[in-house]
Amino acid sequence: MFKRDLKKVLAGYLKFPVVAILGPRQSGKTTLVQNVFKDYVYLSLEDLDTRNLAQNDPKKFLSIHENQKGIIIDEFQNVPDLLSYIQLEVDEKKRPGYFVLTGSQNFLMNQAISQSLAGRVGILTLPPLTINELRESRLLNSKNVDDVIFTGGYPRIYSEKIKPEIMYPSYIQSYVERDVRSLTNVGDIRSFQRFMQLCAARVGQQLNLSELASVCGISVSTSQRWISILDASYIIFLLQPYFKNFNKRITKSPKIYFYDTGLACSLLGIESSKVLGLHPLRGNIFENFIIADIAKQYFNIGKRPPIYFWRDLNGRLEVDCVIDESLLLFSVEIKSGETVATDYFDALKQWNKVSKTNVDNNYVIYGGDLNQQRSYGTIVGWKSVYNFIEKIRGEID
Fold first, then answer.
1. Which residues pair with 335 in a beta bridge?
2. Could you report how far apart the first and last alpha carbons of the chain are, in Å?
3. pLDDT tens-digit profile of 269-308?
4. Most buried one in 113, 168, 213, 306, CB count within 10 A?
5. What CATH code is assigned to 7-125?
6. pTM listed for this prediction
7. Domain boundaries, the chain
8. CA 124, 241, 305 angle in degrees (round to 5)?
């Protein structure tokens, strides 16, 4: 059992009648809830008999499993109509923390919640393992950054000692055959798999739906729909550009990242950490690795990641990550090199001029081990990112 950071905030969510934990398949949701809620009845809607009863007689399903402690319903997006009956139970019996739900499909969950459980449910997200969780489990000591990026953060790889080159192709095949087909009528599965590969080849780049559609041989509307599917099922996330004007944030092109770099490497046909070290996209994948870990750290404290990227008007300089903590803005440049170069701060200097922010809030996270204060910001080695959000939020407090 890995020590999961999300466990620290779970207790605070038990004031809600329902706690929902979302996240990609195999991110450890089931293991976490069974470990935390040991006295609860565990029910999985992946089990066909259990699912049939929940679908055909939801009242009986809930009544026969009623107990003093509570109920865990795993992968409950398989029977979204069950939420209406859970709502009736919640409103009638008013038992805080009684229902614990897990699911791996975000938009189905939110659609169902908006219809029946709004105001009654506390929602958390459990991503794959973070740098900190790997560190706490003593899985970082002998590994270089390429090993960690290539292996990824799915717990099964570590707990069952499965080689990434074996794990991820099977994961992708299972994801396409089970989740994608249940989410929408994709039609040409091979084209969808190619679409995923094209997305992996564009990590850290701005999303161009027309270009993706053209290369994949699909319509732009299909390209948009498939991006939504990958986003909803926790394969990718989109990083919006930073503008003070909120309307501009949501109308400009976002950048595309994967929740897990091991999965992205597999889609790119990278078969070892040595191959990754020589790959032309290695810098983009390293950037993805750090951006994803920052996002995961926010999820693990129960917050939606307030992260963006910034590009100057000429498109020549870009800050990889801007963290908007309302009271303060933090800027992060991400460099895969193991040696700090003087030009690492160029974009940050321009950002400081435009945003009128302080150099004390500038950070460069890079592929080496040095941690050092410089005149234009702070150098942070990749292994020291494990508590990065905790540190900057401490500055606000």
1. 366
2. 32
3. 999 999 999 999 999 999 999 999 999 999 999 999 999 9
4. 168
5. 3.40.50.300
6. 0.93
7. 7-125, 131-291, 307-396
8. 15
